[in-house]
Write a structure and sequence with these properties.
Layout (H helix, E strand, L loop, with lengths): L2 H36 L3 H18 L4 H4 L15
Helix pairs in contact: 1-2
Length: 82
């Protein structure tokens, strides 16, 4: 196993940890969004919808099964700069 193999393994682990953190963040945002709906705070709900969609876009298509229950009515838009 060469140096590049070790670096790649560590990079893959770091990327996996980052994805797990983004999924956890998406779940927290979804929970806060549900609470804001329950207490009738429409502006907060809209802001949390946008935040949830941004996190879901950052995670990408690879984890759609884990994030399927975290849906919001916000249409998919690209927030990346051109």
């Amino acid at each position: 196993m060469g140096v590049t193999s070790v670096v790649k393994i560590k990079a893959d682990q770091g990327a996996e940890d980052g994805l797990e953190e983004l999924v956890a963040l998406a779940r927290m945002i979804a929970y806060a969004r549900q609470v804001s709906q329950d207490v009738k705070l429409p502006f907060a709900t809209n802001c949390l919808d946008l935040a949830l969609e941004a996190v879901k876009q950052e995670v990408g298509e690879g984890l759609t099964k884990e994030l399927a229950e975290l849906s919001s009515p916000v249409p998919q838009v690209s927030v990346r700069s051109h």
